[in-house]
């Protein structure tokens, strides 16, 4: 007859076996295929340390993005590409300060410090990005009177950048989004990608947020509601 100690040991082994699939073993890695694309959003000098709109810890996304990019045959990068005196700049609105908001014809606009002005060093992509196989750079926000967070649509919700058409022509089915900033350009890109019919993953540790007035928590909630999957870079299978 089994004594109490043996019974407890057996119960413990059974419980451990029950928990093992979820508690002890990581889920299978995601293997990007020819129908997958990595979207690298706005890793530009203005958003990095010393920039006019620096995102806290923004530089930390660069090595993560470089690493995961090797797993993708298809990589697209974006650049904010604003005109001087862009409507999203606080300096254009009398009496307004950065991070305040104004109502514009297309909706509520957060006002920013002047940033990513066309042709300036601040608008340049980080020199530390190492993605030589990136095949397309999408520039956005170049219309003076409308902002453009998303890589797919400008802030009016109807002016297309052409990215959705490009990806569909390339037979891309799912996109992985990384870059700056989580709660603005990354989130808007992810949400518009879902609206365009793509399966969407946001690589959390390959992004950093600004988080003004609760914007980061709201962005994650909005993305979850839209069916965007939140993953880590370790969830992506390294290239062979």
From TrEMBL:
<comment type="pathway">
    <text>Cofactor biosynthesis; nicotinate biosynthesis; nicotinate from nicotinamide: step 1/1.</text>
</comment>
<keyword id="KW-0662">Pyridine nucleotide biosynthesis</keyword>
<dbReference type="GO" id="GO:0046872">
    <property type="term" value="F:metal ion binding"/>
</dbReference>
<protein>
    <recommendedName>
        <fullName>Nicotinamidase</fullName>
        <ecNumber>3.5.1.19</ecNumber>
    </recommendedName>
</protein>
<dbReference type="Pfam" id="PF00857">
    <property type="entry name" value="Isochorismatase"/>
</dbReference>
<dbReference type="InterPro" id="IPR006311">
    <property type="entry name" value="TAT_signal"/>
</dbReference>
<comment type="similarity">
    <text>Belongs to the isochorismatase family.</text>
</comment>
<keyword id="KW-0378">Hydrolase</keyword>
<feature type="signal peptide">
    <location>
        <begin position="1"/>
        <end position="26"/>
    </location>
</feature>
<feature type="domain" description="Isochorismatase-like">
    <location>
        <begin position="36"/>
        <end position="234"/>
    </location>
</feature>
<dbReference type="InterPro" id="IPR036380">
    <property type="entry name" value="Isochorismatase-like_sf"/>
</dbReference>
<dbReference type="GO" id="GO:0019363">
    <property type="term" value="P:pyridine nucleotide biosynthetic process"/>
</dbReference>
<dbReference type="InterPro" id="IPR052347">
    <property type="entry name" value="Isochorismatase_Nicotinamidase"/>
</dbReference>
<dbReference type="GO" id="GO:0008936">
    <property type="term" value="F:nicotinamidase activity"/>
</dbReference>
<dbReference type="InterPro" id="IPR000868">
    <property type="entry name" value="Isochorismatase-like_dom"/>
</dbReference>
<keyword id="KW-0732">Signal</keyword>
<keyword id="KW-0479">Metal-binding</keyword>
